[in-house]
């Protein structure tokens, strides 16, 4: 037990985790967190990272697991509805790079579209939700899915790109 602790103190993984946690705590203390809904009771793991948090809205009873990344952009929002659950390592973005052929990608304007996760959705671990997607109320996104299109209420979607595999009963 003691030797494990010593080993841990010398591991890069441990210290990178500590630094990440401190940076996130710093962000939270100085205002770089999303807008919280009326009840301010979202449970957000300390390892979650946010971009443009002024464009991220979390409603009541939202839960966000370890290592999620919510990347809103300057002109498009990410809205997470009441009681939604994000498993670990979920990535949500409201921004694509432009990809026209005759200009280098980094010089093109972003293409920005709101992402809306409605009430009671559950997004499984390692899933990706792309710009412009609206998850209908109660959608389940299976682990590892890439959601490119909006979903119907109470559908269960899986795969890359995500397709309906069934509906909640
Ligand atoms: C989506 C999910 C809830 C479905 O669970 P389920 O209703 O018990 O589904 P089953 O295991 O009976 O699978 C039904 C079908 O969907 C497929 N499937 C299930 N999960 C899948 C996934 N993540 N990706 C692709 N296909 C999947 C199964 O292979 C099966 O296909 P088949 O009918 O051709 O055999 C579950 O598989 C899942 O992905 N959970 C997420 C777990 C997670 O991220 N937890 C973190 C805690 S927040």
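^ structure tokens above, recovered residues below v
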């Amino acid at each position: 037990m003691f030797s494990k602790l010593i080993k841990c103190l010398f591991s890069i993984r441990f210290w990178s985790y500590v630094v990440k946690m401190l940076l996130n705590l710093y962000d939270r203390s100085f205002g770089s967190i999303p807008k919280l809904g009326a009840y301010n009771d979202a449970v957000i793991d300390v390892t979650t990272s946010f971009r443009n948090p002024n464009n991220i809205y979390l409603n009541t009873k939202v839960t966000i697991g370890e290592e999620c990344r919510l990347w809103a952009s300057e002109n498009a929002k990410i809205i997470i509805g009441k009681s939604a659950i994000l498993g670990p390592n979920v990535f949500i973005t409201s921004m694509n790079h432009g990809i026209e052929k005759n200009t280098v990608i980094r010089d093109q304007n972003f293409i920005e579209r709101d992402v809306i996760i409605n009430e009671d959705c559950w997004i499984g671990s390692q899933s990706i939700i792309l710009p412009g997607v609206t998850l209908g109320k109660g959608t389940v996104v299976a682990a590892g899915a890439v959601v490119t299109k909006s979903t119907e209420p109470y559908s269960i979607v899986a795969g890359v790109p995500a397709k309906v595999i069934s509906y909640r009963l």
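Residues 7 and 14 are 10 Å apart (CA to CA).
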